User: Fold Phosphoglycerate mutase from Saccharibacter floricola DSM 15669.
Amino acid sequence: MTQNTRPTLDPQAHFIDGPTLPSGTTRFWLVRHGVVEEDARRTMYGTLDVPLCPHALQDHQPAYASLARRLPHDALWFSSPLQRAYQTGLTIQKAGRFSTPIATEADFTEQSMGQWSGEPHATFPTLLSKPSHPFWSLSADETPPGGESMDQVKQRIGSCLERLAHAHTGHDMVVLSHGGAIRMALAHALQCSPDMALHLTVQNLSLSIIEHIAGYWRVISVNTLPDFGENTL
Assistant:
């Protein structure tokens, strides 16, 4: 019989009673990218490198500034290599006058749709071999030809989070990523199935926060929206 070697945590030591989060905790600030351009939004773009919508980028400047005010200035920054995530990070940094370099991390990219990439939403259901998830375009265990299932996305995201948590213990880390990928990060933290995590909502420019403490994960917030001001798309 194997024994659990993780330390026993004193719950009293990790209560968060005040309005601020304590420093010195391994913490990931997961930000979904901004709204992509209109034509791409009609398709299953997945890992296609589609750009942000220029009109939304302009209209949502208050939201980028709001995010900049929320994020810690001494954090490390990581981004999916896709331009919509990286540009979101640069826009937030410009709004908040951050100077930290953004490192690209391939494991934070979106679910690959493989041969189904770019398929219009209207015809996408005809390609599926299983019923789709009620809140995702395909089931968590459906694997597009040449692509990956959400089960596989959870595995790569989880491995990446564990690696960064051990490499940067005690640091804040901002991660610019994608809706499906962030759901799978939450699935890893919650130790729940990809199917269950797809019931969570992760909107554009939303912030979700998870922490890694002595080998354990906990969720601080999910889908917290910034202040968009009066301008919405």
